[in-house]
Amino acid sequence: MTNIKIKVNNLSCFYNNKCVLENLSIEVIQNEILSIIGPANSGKTTFLRTLNRMSDFYQDYSRKGKIYINQENIFDMNMETLRKRVGMLFAMPIPLPMTIYENITYAPKRLGLIPSKKNEQDAMVEDALKGASLWEEVKDRLNSSAMRMSGGQQQRLCIARILAINPEVILFDEPCSGLDPISTAKVEESMMELKEKYTIILVTNNVKQASRVSDRTAFFLMGKLIEIDKTDKLFVSPNTKQTEDYITGRFG
Amino acid sequence: MFKLNPKLSQKLAYCLLFCSMLLTIFPVLIIIFIIVKNGASAITWEFLTAMPKDGMRSGGILLAILGTLSIVLCAISITLPIGVCAAIYLNEYAKDNLLTRIIKLSIVNLAGVPSVVYGLFGLGIFVMYFKLGVSIIAGALTLSIMELPVIITTARNALNSVPHSFREASLSLGVSRWQTIRHIVLPNALPGILTGAILSIARISGETAPILFTAAAFYVPHFPHSIFDQVMALPYHLYIIATQIPNMPKNIIFGTALVLLMIILSMSFTAIFLRIYFRKRRKW
């Protein structure tokens, strides 16, 4: 029996009362990588930002429907608690303007998760950086500014920052859109390792990336879920013509 | 019709713009030149550190300098915390609704009120209604209200200059809004807030009208004992010795103006240097 981590029931999202995500029901299985592909304006990012309620800050945003994580309704949850459990990686790397070390300890300090002893803190930082496959590159300059790293390193630092708060789910919002192929490969590599411990949802514009890393893939179009299936199946014999057109690049 | 060729019109435009630039520099230079030329001879150690003598015709202006500094420092310590808090609320929490628009409109209007009206307001409210009397605190409160819109506006600009993405990154890690403001936004906005505060101090140091009825005295022969005392203040003192006292030596008048000018200019330069320093250290 598969373990369902996230269950979305009839979710609809609106900006200015215009529907951008329509009646979505979807399930995410524990420790899988689920990719979401689809053209612009298909509601992918809106879905992601609803999952950790980052959209709640937008004034013209509204929604209907329910989302459960481990059977708990996320809209009844305290927002900070939810975001601690559901981490998010943005499209552009956003290191905070402090040192590499402080970037990792920042959130645990604020959330009261930081160990009191200095050597335990060091171990926590090392674990997080290793988890994001960044430790070897930066272990000698933990106290230099995170703003001076390369784009790929910054993005992996952001992953490490999420690992430090030990979430259950990690959302990746087009994490490689600003990265070169080698950095992309490194981020994908760490994603593959992360799914041992975390449930991952990956929104990507790169269809090949979805086929490389994910267990299952969902295709969104104009705010609707068109198709969701095992990645191997969806890329070989999709059920709908629209999906086939999109993944083969014949779209529109 | 007569038509200029492009080269000539370019030259004319350049000339016009350059002359406008000169027109803004010349008055400043001339003012400084005249004041220094006439006042430099009055600047002695005694002038800066002694009590006034001979009906203020000789002696020093120490009391006026101290009076101005005490009013201004008192005012900024009231207005800075309130202004920064209001700016944080407006920038980080306020939703775009009717209330917010009313608040913003009143800030703009507060900035447009003439300074003498603030003076009368201070007289009515602080001096008479709250019975603070003509005192440092009454003048400081009046100045602090006058400076509030400026502080709020500069603080909001400083908060706005912190990239929005930093806030998102922090919030997405489960850090609360207040903690994000406290640990990410404020530290990065502080340089801008600080330079704005120094410029505000410089600006209110030269104000006469708001302290005219609320804090400044014609002549007080001793140091203030508490914030409830009235004091002499440089701008008002300058007005008095320039217009009210016969046979006033000219170099004393210009010397006083020079001291006031130097205090204000040195604060402005401090703000400029601080800004350069922080820009260099900025990490993004």
Notes on the structure:
- The complex is a heterodimer of chains A (252) and B (284).
- Chain A has 252 residues and is an alpha/beta fold.
- Chain A starts with a strand and ends in a 5-residue tail after the last helix.
- Chain A contains 10 helices and 10 strands.
- In chain A, helix 3 packs parallel to helix 6, helix 4 packs across helix 6 (151-164) and helix 6 (151-164) packs parallel to helix 7 (181-194).
- Chain B has 11 helices and 2 strands; from the N terminus they run H-H-E-E-H-H-H-H-H-H-H-H-H.
- Chain B starts with 5 loop residues before the first helix and ends with a helix.
- The model of chain B has no long low-confidence stretch (mean pLDDT 90).
- A two-stranded antiparallel ribbon of chain B has the order 1-2.
- In chain B, helix 3 (62-93) packs across helix 6 and helix 7 packs antiparallel against helix 8.
- Chain B is mostly helical.
- The longest helix of chain B has 34 residues, at 6-39.
- Chain B is 74% helix and 1% strand.
- Chain B has a single domain, classed as MetI-like fold (Orthogonal Bundle).
- In chain B, a hairpin with a 4-residue loop joins strand 1 (52-53) and strand 2 (58-59).
- Chain A binds chain B through residues 52, 54, 57, 59, 80-85, 87-88, 90, 92, 94, 96-98, 106-107, 110-111, 145, 147, 158, 161-162, 165, and chain B through 95-96, 165-166, 168-176, 179, 183-184, 188, 283-284.
